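Lab manual, section 2.4: Encoding a predicted structure.

Procedure: take the sequence of the chain (529 residues), apply the prediction step described in section 2.3, and record the output as structure tokens. A sample record is shown.
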Amino acid sequence: MAGSRQETAPTAPPEAHRRLAHDSVRLAVVIGALGVVFGDIGTSPIYTLQTVFSPGDPHPVPVTTQNVYGVVSLVFWSVMVIVTVTYVLLAMRADNDGEGGIMALITLVRRWSSQPGRRTAVVLAALGIFGASLFFGDSMITPAISVLSAVEGLKVVEPSLGDAVVPITAVIIVVLFLVQRRGTAAVGRVFGPVMIAWFTAIGVCGAAGIADHPDILEALSPTYALGFLFGHFGTAFFALAAVVLAVTGAEALYADMGHFGRRSITRGWLFLVFPACVLSYLGQGALILDDPANISSPFFLLVPEWARWPMILLATAATVIASQAVITGAYSVASQAAQLGYLPRLRIAHTSESTVGQIYVPWINWLLMVSVLTLVFAFRSSAALAFAFGMAVTGTITITTLLFLYVARAKWGTPKWLIGIGAAVLLFVDLLFVAANMTKLVHGAWLPLLIGLTAFTVMTTWQRGRELVTAERAREEGPLPEFIDGLRSGELPALRVPGTAVFLNRGKETPRWPCGPTWSTTTCGTSRS
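Recorded output:
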């Protein structure tokens, strides 16, 4: 009997065990994504409302009950429309073999453009290159403003430490860029638990603030956002230039999709990041309603006094991770740009044995480090950089929306009426933010435009130069099929080496080797033996 029981015992692991192992792997990827992807958008609560109500703004928003409700509602619905709808639910479905970001959309536009719509595709591709150029500006500004905003918390608990903010920020940034060579996965494993603690902390502090003033929950109604926007358009329009700070990092979510995948990023956003950020914004709004003087630093003042030092340390760690999101996004954009011929071939280190999207690009890393340090020492405060930040973000978001709508029509055949409705809603929101940020042009918004124009000029010049060189080489060397025919007929002297060779050619028309009596049957049509 015992023997028969042994014979019928299962040899494969139980289904429950396999499911548990699969869920563990999936959870690990989500945690890794939290440590890399969400740092930028997850630290926006530190400075968004503070910037909106800043008395130093060229167009300050008066602190009134109606304005506080309107601004908080506007922040919530901006995040909902731009991040949740445009990026998480829509744009991230358009990937190029798993890669995301605006360069992936450019590839899809070029791939799916029909002959009648070729001119439109060319224009959109050029616009996409400018959007990618703006993202490089975002990648430079984000680390500077994020780390500065966190370290500035020192002035809240100890004003005498104000002069140490810039040096401490510079040291943190240098260390951040030095550890990039260890790879995205390694960085994510370290940063993931930190970000879980961060989102838990800001969510708890926000909930405590809401408990003191629960009426702030009414701001979740879109009527407050619409009433503020259309009822006080003069005030709300200028406020949008600061409200956009709440959606910084949206493009990084998309650009980093190749590192962790769409599902992991979507789950992390919907189940942790989005709820925590919303609670923080609502809590800060409640705090400002209690005392308008709290606009000086609503995020840190929301934290109990005994916990402010730990929160400053946690915020500093979180803003370092915020920088990580756009840095890895810049690696992905640069890599795809090089593949498309818009940048020279860069040395790309693949830092994962299993995930092709996890890369490290040394040249981009050191360029970003120098640029970020320059911005820190030039602007010296997060408030000064905030005016420049929104222009890069809104420009990239608007162009991404345009490209996605084109891909949705060309690739998936989405009905025109549905595309029209989507364009009307999404582009109205995006262009409203762009127009509002144009009012900050002389106050710093010129900076990302200058960076974008410089990067755009470099990429388009390189792409055009490569086309000219390729055409000249083809003219000098002659057609490749004729060269191969000459080798086969014996007209051209050739030294035969045993074995199989692979010749790489960037041209689109690489002919197959012809078959004949002197050609190996195993390599006929591919290479010569």
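Check your result against the sample. The radius of gyration is 27 Å.
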